[in-house]
Design a protein that fits this description.
This protein is mostly helical. It has helices at about 10-40, 40-60, 65-75, 80-90.
């Protein structure tokens, strides 16, 4: 995650932690849905590995986490198609 020059207040820290937890919960639920649909540990592991690689890519390429990426996509600061194209190149 990127850090700001000023210190975060306790309420800002709590909000940020809740956002991170919320995203992590959504990722976990997504992976569990894939497992329930496929009944395959291999599928679950593949999705989990792919998401970890994407998160690594975000840190290496943009120095951001997934929460910041989602915010930037929602505010049209980052084009999701360009991001996926760059991710594809990163994987190659």
């Amino acid at each position: 995650m990127t850090s700001s020059p000023r210190s975060l207040s306790n309420s800002e820290k709590n909000t940020k932690q809740m956002q991170v937890q919320s995203i992590q919960d959504k990722i976990t639920k997504f992976i569990e849905r894939k497992f329930r649909a496929s009944h395959s540990l291999s599928t679950k592991n593949t999705y989990n590995s792919s998401l970890r690689r994407f998160i690594e890519f975000l840190h290496v390429q943009y120095d951001i986490d997934i929460e910041v990426l989602l915010q930037k996509i929602q505010t049209n600061q980052i084009d999701p198609i360009d991001t996926l194209d760059t991710f594809y190149s990163f994987l190659s």
